[in-house]
Amino acid sequence: MTTKPREGRRKSDADDGNILAGFASNNGMQPTREKATKPKEARTNTAPARAKSTTMTLEETLGQLKSLGNEATRAYNTKSGAGDNQFGVSRGDVRKLANKIKTNHELALSLWKTGNIDAQFLATLLIKVDLLSADELERMVKSVTFAWVAEWLHSYVIKQHADKETLRKKWMESDDRWAARAGWQLTAGRVAKSPEGLDLAALLDRIETEMASADPEVQWTMNMCLAEIGIHFPKHRKRAIAIGEKLGVYRDYPCSKGCTSPFAPIWINAMVSRQG
Q1: Which residues in the chain land under pLDDT 70?
Q2: CA-to-CA distance for 230 and 128, rounded, in angstroms?
């Protein structure tokens, strides 16, 4: 699995949970046998109780989020590009609240429409993806204002949506920066996991031509796609590295000790070296 570097957003908290856990249960019961000569006793259903969801209105949920906000998180979000419509709730507290509420599609849609980034983080965890139409999802994508929210939306909603491939193709041609960002991110995922049918040379052509002047939001996921091509396809590696060197995008990106630079040549070589 490719390790992705941090963005001025990413790695968002979305990456501490890119995969939502699924749970299956047989109610904790196993069939038992009784001896033929022994009458069967009446049995009580002793399945373990499930955690109950908490029903909350939009106003109550926003009140909970507001009470969880703190100045340090607000300042950090602002420094990372968030606007004023936020409470400054830590992502961990957002997750705890989501676990308390459980899935609530209507509440999720209402939370998203507030434009508050903490409400939108929470919405991505409460939404029922199979009830979301492609048009609704596209409207959500285009209404994003903060890159970390885009990450959570990608991880928990877009990647799970039945129409993601159709939307990917559409968004790859979009003039909307958030839709284009999502399109390139889906494409990067396909390069890494299911590249069949993709024209990698044509993708490199577009990246070479467009990435330097792209919006910063789009530039990040285009660069991700460039790196994935170089990492996974030796045939295209030399060209991918050359494009990265030529464009110089993220060459001077500040990185903490132990983190991999998002500068494509460094990223590609680092990941290839780990392949053995």
Answers
A1: 1-53
A2: 35
